Amino acid sequence: MTDLEKMTAGELYWGFNPVFVPALERGQDYCHRYNLLPPSEKAARNNLLKEFFKKLGNQVIVNPPMHIDLGNLEVGDHTIINFNFVALDEALVSIGEHCFIGPNCSIYTVTHSLCYQDRDLGLMTALPVSIEDHCWLCGNVTVLPGVTIGKGSVIGAGSLVTKDIPAGVLAYGNPCRVIRPITENDREFLEGINKPTELV
């Protein structure tokens, strides 16, 4: 297997292989171009994301600056990614529909060897990260390789997510842990209660 095939398969690979340089430079170029576009140029920004990302849903907002390695991202409809988003996306990063990704959030799929003798050689692995539909990652959340965050869950600000989080829960901490389920008691607008005009 080539190092690219090993990276895609989640196996140990040589990350210093020059074959990766063009793809990393391409990613840096896309991010640089995107980050320099004025906010008013919405169509140009959207077209650039469509070119760069593996999949881009409808009505996705990404507030610059963003810093992404390869563009190996799939983002669903109506998702908002706030300022200073970082994705080391050597493996696939999947973000579902109607997700809120707060400012200064980072998603890492790549990890290096613990032993410096191997790390100095550039040996590493990459594991996919999945953020399912309707999730909210509050500000300064870091998600580590191989993690899945289940549908509708909320990750509190400043959390370090080291393992899978089930659907429909509030979780936070360092390391992140489940605090409690999210229930109907958490609804802001229940049936029979007047909603703000813009939500009617």
Task: Give an overview in words.
The structure is a single chain. The strands form 4 sheets. A 7-stranded mixed beta sheet has the order 3-6-9-14-17-19-20, with no helix packed on it. Strands 2-5-8-13-16 form a 5-stranded parallel beta sheet, with no helix packed on it. Strands 4-7-10-15-18 form a 5-stranded parallel beta sheet. With 200 residues, it is of the alpha/beta class. It has 4 helices and 20 strands. Helix 2 (21-36) packs antiparallel against helix 3 (42-52). The protein starts with a helix and ends in a 19-residue tail after the last strand. Strand 19 and strand 20 form a beta hairpin. It has helices at residues 3-9, 21-36, 42-52, 116-119, and strands at residues 13-14, 55-56, 61-62, 66-68, 73-75, 80-81, 85-88, 93-95, 100-101, 106-108, 110-112, 123-126, 129-131, 136-137, 142-143, 148-149, 154-155, 160-161, 169-173, 176-181. It is globular, with a radius of gyration of 18 Å. The model has no long low-confidence stretch (mean pLDDT 94).
Beta strands, count: 20
What is the mean pLDDT?
A: 94
String of helices and strands: HEHHEEEEEEEEEEHEEEEEEEEE
Uncertain spans: none
Q: How many helices in DSSP terms?
A: 4
Sequence of strands across the biggest β-sheet: 3-6-9-14-17-19-20
Q: Biggest sheet, open or closed, and with what strands and sense?
A: 7 strands, mixed
The proportion of residues forming helix, as a percent range, comes to: 10-25%
Q: Evaluate the radius of gyration.
A: 18 Å
Structural shape:
globular
Range of strand content: 25-35%
* N- to C-terminal distance: 56 Å
